Amino acid sequence: MAIDAANNDLASTSRSASWRAFGVIFLSRFALNLQFRIVYPFLPAISRGLGVPLETASLLLVARALVGATSPLYGALADRHGRRALMLTGLVALVAGSLLVAVAPAFGVMLAAFALLGLCKASYDPAMQALVGDALPYEQRGRVLSLLELPWALAWLIGVPATGFLIAAFGWQSPFWLIAALGSASVLLTLWIIPPSRRGDAHGPPAARSAPQSADRSLTPVRLSLPRWVTWPVIMALTVTFLLMLAIENVFVVYGAWLENQFGLSVTVLGVASIVISLAELTAEGGAAALVDRLGKRRAVLGGLLLTIAAYVVLPLVAGTLAGALGGVTLMFLAFEFSIVCMVPLVSELAPEARGTVLAFNVAAMAAARAVSALTAPRLWAIGGLTLNASVSTAAAIVAALIMWRGIKERRQSTS
């Protein structure tokens, strides 16, 4: 995708320009996701570098998550002022936050830095997704959005081992110099490749605004005092996203403790298990790119939800052996990633006139689910172990599937 400098019609740009813009967004998302994912396995190294307990260092994640939950604000700004402006805001915040971490290792400064790192994804992701939604017909949108999720898995597969090497060789701050460099390159490439939207074009080209809707938007708003885009299909879709993320995080938060307690795994072996997870995510994202537009977004999400339910049911049954446990975790992440990736193009067409806002609320729903599961998962684990966590996740996935089945309708675009 690339924005035509003359008429802002992404669909009419040349193939080479489209691939250049795709590459810029791919690189940008890799840098953004890298800062997000590497902190979890290396938080102990960060805490030692700061000279604070691990519990105190975890407040950095809280600061990042709280700012990340403000994404609806930036989605509304993307609808009003254009997609590229908010994408650049996110990339600049990434560079500034990474440089602060790299040069000022004081805890108060680090809190401010991680707040900026929370802002970067909250601003960039919904604006980027809305840009793709503006550019492409609904029937073709899922493949591109799915491919643009590959940096999420690659940031773990490539970034975590590279970060370990950098920390061992140059210290715990060194990876953030690399992230700042990648972010700076992304800023320059975005300015070069992706021209700004004209005022009034923030909702995309006329074809995108006039396209038939993916859901039955003849429904009246929930309340007349709310914005027109606040309809039951939007609310139901955001609820599905929340439940999907709640279910996976409810197990993911404790899976490391489970594998350590059950099998006595070392940190090195846990790292290998994490690579297995990244490979499952890559497989799911590739599968979504290949299937979501062919199957239809709603049907793809429903299929993924059914597989997700099966994964949570099976997990406690196969958890007695290490091979079974890793296989169950792999199936769980594969099913979840396929479902959540297929949700994005579906959500992107529920309210085209406020696409950036709705996609930003979708990001906020994920952040809210992460916050809730961080509180509930350890307590469930303490009470009933993996079986209780998996049971709660199963229930959440079943409710999500029922909502998708009964609460969200998808209308195919007409052919002319």
> Which structural category fits the helices and strands?
mainly alpha
CATH class of the largest domain: Mainly Alpha
Approximate shape: globular
Strand proportion, as a percent range, falls in under 5%
Unreliable spans = 1-13, 199-224
CATH superfamily of the largest domain: MFS general substrate transporter like domains
Q: Describe the sheet with the most strands.
A: none
Q: What radius of gyration results from the CA coordinates? A: 21 Å
Structure explained in plain terms:
The chain has 416 residues and is mainly α. It folds into 2 domains: 10-204, MFS general substrate transporter like domains (Growth Hormone, Chain: A, Up-down Bundle), CATH 1.20.1250; 232-407, Growth Hormone, Chain: A. The chain has 17 helices and no strands. The protein has helices at residues 15-37, 39-50, 54-57, 59-68, 71-81, 83-103, 107-135, 138-147, 150-157, 159-170, 174-193, 206-210, 232-263, 267-295, 297-318, 322-348, 355-407. The radius of gyration is 21 Å and the shape is globular. Mean pLDDT is 82; it is low at 1-13 and 199-224.
Short summary:
This protein is mainly α and 416 residues long.
List the helices and strands and how they pair.
Elements: H1 15-37, H2 39-50, H3 54-57, H4 59-68, H5 71-81, H6 83-103, H7 107-135, H8 138-147, H9 150-157, H10 159-170, H11 174-193, H12 206-210, H13 232-263, H14 267-295, H15 297-318, H16 322-348, H17 355-407
Helix pairs in contact: 1-7, 1-9, 1-11, 4-7, 4-17, 5-6, 5-7, 5-17, 6-7, 6-11, 7-8, 7-17, 8-14, 8-16, 9-14, 13-16, 13-17, 14-15, 14-16, 15-16, 15-17
